[in-house]
Amino acid sequence: MSARPAALPTEPAVTRVAVPLPGREYDILIGRGVAAGAGALIRERLQPARAALVTDANVAALHGDALLASLNEAGIAATLVVVPPGEASKSYRHFAQVCDGILEAKVERRDVVVALGGGVVGDLAGFAAASVRRGSAFVQIPTSLLAQVDSSVGGKTGINSPHGKNLVGAFHQPGLVLADTALIDTLPDREMRAGYAEIVKYGLIDRADFFAWCEANWRDIFAGGPARDEAVAVSCRAKAAIVVRDEREDGDRALLNLGHTFAHALERLTGYDGARLVHGEAVAIGLALAFRFSARLGLGPGQDASRVAGHLSSVGLPTRLSDVPGGVGDADAILDAMFQDKKVSRGALTFILARGIGQSFIAKGVDPADVRAFLSGELSAEA
Amino acid sequence: MSARPAALPTEPAVTRVAVPLPGREYDILIGRGVAAGAGALIRERLQPARAALVTDANVAALHGDALLASLNEAGIAATLVVVPPGEASKSYRHFAQVCDGILEAKVERRDVVVALGGGVVGDLAGFAAASVRRGSAFVQIPTSLLAQVDSSVGGKTGINSPHGKNLVGAFHQPGLVLADTALIDTLPDREMRAGYAEIVKYGLIDRADFFAWCEANWRDIFAGGPARDEAVAVSCRAKAAIVVRDEREDGDRALLNLGHTFAHALERLTGYDGARLVHGEAVAIGLALAFRFSARLGLGPGQDASRVAGHLSSVGLPTRLSDVPGGVGDADAILDAMFQDKKVSRGALTFILARGIGQSFIAKGVDPADVRAFLSGELSAEA
């Protein structure tokens, strides 16, 4: 007889993606229903006595009780810390609220902060976990597709400042990520598409095969079929590989910003108003722009740029500046917004450009005049 | 002919203490007048284009212009960020103010945040430097004796929460510390004594010879003679040695908390009201209590406890609970305050106790009943 029972037929199929950061290895467990076992999984790996479960009011209503029960049944005394839904919670004020909530829950350094939510909750709770007692253990349970394939992996945490997004934060790796792909069944279409833009990004960075696979399988990803788990796993593996090479973004990690220099400028110009433009939509436009800009600079073929925009359009994502409701101003306005972005280094613009699908690279010292000319062309072509 | 000119007779005598943290080595430069060369020293070591000079209104009035000039003359574009003086600035609100001030100064990750001030400014600016863009270079120019021998060394940064002191922060090592021992000539006697308590602590932890040297030389330390530079250098060397062994306080670093479990409780009970008790005074009482408690537990000789208290008293520092103006309540009140301190682990009390002067050790799982009995004895003996 084995001390460990064989897996029951009802147990979820789980894909494990390891993030082998030296001394801080952790796993991303991906699968439908994996969050239901959160308590036991967290207990087995981190042995906390207490947990602060940080979430937003919307997610709390959907999944709060189940997660609290899972933690408490595993012998982890869990306390809910609830913030308002939305990007506005990535603020100094809610950072203070979450830190104090974690302290109120008497979570010590060897206990755990669990982030249950999308990117906002993960970034905010992660920065609080990094800061309370100068660092507490941290678990991510991402509930949006965007968070499952991007923000929950890699240890970037933070809040926004009046000077820009994510300008205040910490590198703080989770001890475990549970990406339950069933949790996103209820996600609105628009948020699904927004998350999907980041999946496509990994193909465009350095996995041309994966991009082609996305073109063939995107409907099953959206429908919650087996392709969804596969897409999340490939995305997490792609991101983890880059993060392990360059945790603190001194080099290669910047590749993950493909499309993001444009995207951040567009988000800034729309006042971070999700009604007009959510992050993933901005990324979709940014990806299309990065490929068209690369083609214009003679770096990559125009047909790759067309193929990228074509695929993004076919899933319903925007790909042009004119797709932003209300517009984003002229080329100079966009350029100014880029210069305010944190990826700017010493006044020179750094872009991620591409020699083709799956062949992106870091381009330092891009001439702002070239960017302005490109943006002017985009705007007049669209007018 | 040498390319490097010999030191001019007017150059300050500088003692260098290296902090050899792997990959993040930095120097503490100690001496009268060393801050006057801040701009050139920072430029030589960190090559920043910009600096945010964080200070408080009092220090700004005394030294702000000189430091700004030193930085600007070295080609570093420097911007002042001024907070109100006092512990109340170690708050979420001023953390936000300083982060935004650093961003306003357009300091990027390779630029530098310079903390010019006492422990409050250093802790606050250090946490902001750790957090802005998830980590900017950081230089400490401590202007109090306490900061020169303790808080500016070792990378602990942070702010206070309503739940307690220093509960929110980061480990963020400076790239350089400039301890200008002439800057503290104008320090009020009470603050000098408070800083001196931390100097004595290093002797009590593991340097009995240094404690004896302090007994013989304390007047020259206070007067600003050569013993002051020597005392600061020995203190920094002692702290650096412990920090290099255990940067994140998983073990030995806790020795630096000698006297501090008592001290933090007393500060909490006096509402962090510096008019009643400043940190160094609380530490002095804490050191005396730690030695008397050790003696009462039969761990160390009573004459060492008497010698410790005797020396602290001779420089004008408090050593008894009854020395706190307005009192601190009964034994249970003090014990309750200890349990709220962050050094508490899983409900067991951890103390730094001593087998004698220079023979301190980490005592885990100290029985709260023993602490209560000891405190009751102290209070009734004093009544």
Question: Can you describe what's shown?
Answer:
Chain A is α/β, with parallel strands linked by helices. Chain A folds into two domains: 15-184, Rossmann fold, CATH 3.40.50; 189-382, Up-down Bundle (Dehydroquinate synthase-like, alpha domain), CATH 1.20.1090.10. The first copy, chain A, contains 13 helices and eleven strands. The first copy, chain A, starts with 14 loop residues before the first strand and ends with a helix. Chains A and B meet through α3, α4, β7 and β8 of A and α3, α4, β7 and β8 of B.
Main attributes?
383 residues, alpha/beta, Rossmann fold, 2 domains, 7-stranded mixed β-sheet, two-stranded antiparallel ribbon, 18% strand
Brief sketch in words of this structure:
The structure is a homodimer of 383-residue chains. By secondary structure, the first copy, chain A, is of the alpha/beta class. Helices cover 46% and strands 18% of the residues of chain A.
What is the mean predicted local confidence, pLDDT of chain A? 93
What best-fitting shape of chain A do the alpha-carbon axes yield? globular
- Helix and strand run of chain A: EEHEHEHEHEHEEEHHHHHHHEEH
How much strand of chain A? 15-25%
What is the tally of helical segments of chain A? 13
Query: How many individual β-strands of chain A?
Result: 11
| Straight-line N-to-C gap of chain A | 73 Å
CATH topology group of the largest domain in chain A: Dehydroquinate synthase-like, alpha domain
Determine Rg of chain A (CA atoms, Å). Answer: 21 Å
Q: How many distinct folded domains of chain A?
A: 2
Largest interface: A-B, 33 and 34 residues
